[in-house]
Design brief:
mainly alpha
Amino acid sequence: RLILTDDNFATIVAAVHEGRAIFANIRTFLRYLLSSNAGEVLTVFFGIVLAGVIGLDAGDDGAVAVPFLATHLLWINLITDSLPAIALGVNPPAPGLMARPPRPPGARVIDRPMVTGILAVGLVMAAVTLFTFDLWLPGGLVAGGGTLAEARTAAFTVLVLAQLFNALNARAFTNRLLWAGIALAALLQVAVVHLPPLQHAFGTVPLSAGEWGLCLMLASVVLVAEQARQWVTGSG
């Protein structure tokens, strides 16, 4: 329902424009949160199911190690579900917003193409995170030479960075608040990995410059894969 306070046609145009911008931001906010959380859930699930494949059962007793500690998951939700998500919720209106055809009255906020995109991002995010475990751990498909603590730190970092790259899938490149949120979240992750008090609290170990570069490269797959999917399907 639209209630006008004057008889100026420009008021209607402005109201419709604002409504479309708010609706688009709600979808962007939900897409980011749900796809990122799907990545976390799928990583933990397949990390346990595929423990023998990626080397999470490579200990002497053969017991399966959980992919992440509870503090890791809480930290991920704290820095990725707050700063970037809030910024996406106040994203500037996209160009050509009024040129789009009106959506059907019964259209859902979360439709089938959006669900497909959420699952696609979640699966890619889980895949690159589990591959990181495989790279660092002695067992698995790719035999690494790292300890469980090193593998957890690298995979933990990749999952955080992957969610930050996922925020860029909204193509909100002019959103300064988003860039600030991503930068702050990345700095906090560096602190968790390298500051001794936080290392003790989160069970992390330092990463070398080369390992940080590898983590960045693996995490960026989430951005590249989703942009390629959107280009192929013509979705946004």
